[in-house]
Amino acid sequence: MPDPAVPGEHGPVEPDDDLAGYGGGPARSLVEAYVHLDLTGPGDGPGAAERAVLTEEQEGWRVRLDGGEVFVPYAAETEARREELTFGSGVSELIDPGQWVLVGATYARRALEAALFFAADPSSDERYQAIVSDWRFAADAVLEALKFMPEGAGELPAASFWTELGRTAYQGEPARFTRARLEDDLAYYRTALDDFLRLHAEGDDPA
């Protein structure tokens, strides 16, 4: 049975009441379950990774928080860890591409803010690891949005957005959901991570 602990902190993102009525499919990983609960929760206090209650069932975990719950099959979590996939394999049944883009932006903003404090005092290994995780999660969230892109298409179809939060993001800035823009965001987050790693690796080199 996999260990339910997951890396990083998952602070709450703006809530979306409409999401609770969609499908009810399982999460592909514990990380996805926590992100989903952050999106559907009240949005105050610590994130789901800190407050959620896990119970073990025959085929997986039941993750509960503030009246919401998500089922995570053991097999799905095992596959996610084996393949080193942050949010799991396949396409999400819980989080739409509009939400994934917002989640990515949230992780990136947190990484940028934390990096400013880290530059002033680069002595905290915990903060260093959190920044690395946030940049990686930002890039992985954009990859999740790209999974919804039809083959050969230049933009995500409007039908891809089934949550109120996702639809609002799409309607407010549809150009944000083109293939070119998503690939640019992905490249930016990956470059930011590489730059951060290189900068602090060089800073640790006594030569």
Task: Present the secondary structure layout.
Layout: H1 30-40, H2 48-51, E1 53-56, E2 60-65, E3 68-73, H3 74-82, H4 97-120, H5 125-146, H6 164-172, H7 179-204
Antiparallel strand pairs: 1-2, 2-3
Helix pairs in contact: 4-5, 4-6, 5-7
Description:
Helix content is 51%, strand content 8%. The radius of gyration is 17 Å and the shape is globular. It has 7 helices and 3 strands; from the N terminus they run ααβββααααα. It has a 3-stranded antiparallel beta sheet. It is mainly α.
What would the keywords be for this entry?
51% helix; 3 strands; three-stranded antiparallel β-sheet; mainly alpha; 207 residues
**Broad structural category:** mainly alpha
**Structural Rg:** 17 Å
Tell me the helix content.
Answer: 40-55%
The string of secondary-structure elements, in order, is HHEEEHHHHH
Question: Treating each run of at least 4 consecutive H or I residues as one helix, how many helices?
Answer: 7
Widest sheet: strand ordering: 1-2-3
- Measured between the Cα atoms of the first and last residue, the distance is 45 Å
Content of β-strand: 5-15%
Mean pLDDT: 85
The outline comes out as globular
**Mind summarizing the main beta sheet?**
3 strands, antiparallel
Number of strands: 3
In short:
The protein has 207 residues and is mostly helical. It has helices spanning 30-40, 48-51, 74-82, 97-120, 125-146, 164-172, 179-204, and strands spanning 53-56, 60-65, 68-73. The protein has seven helices and three strands.
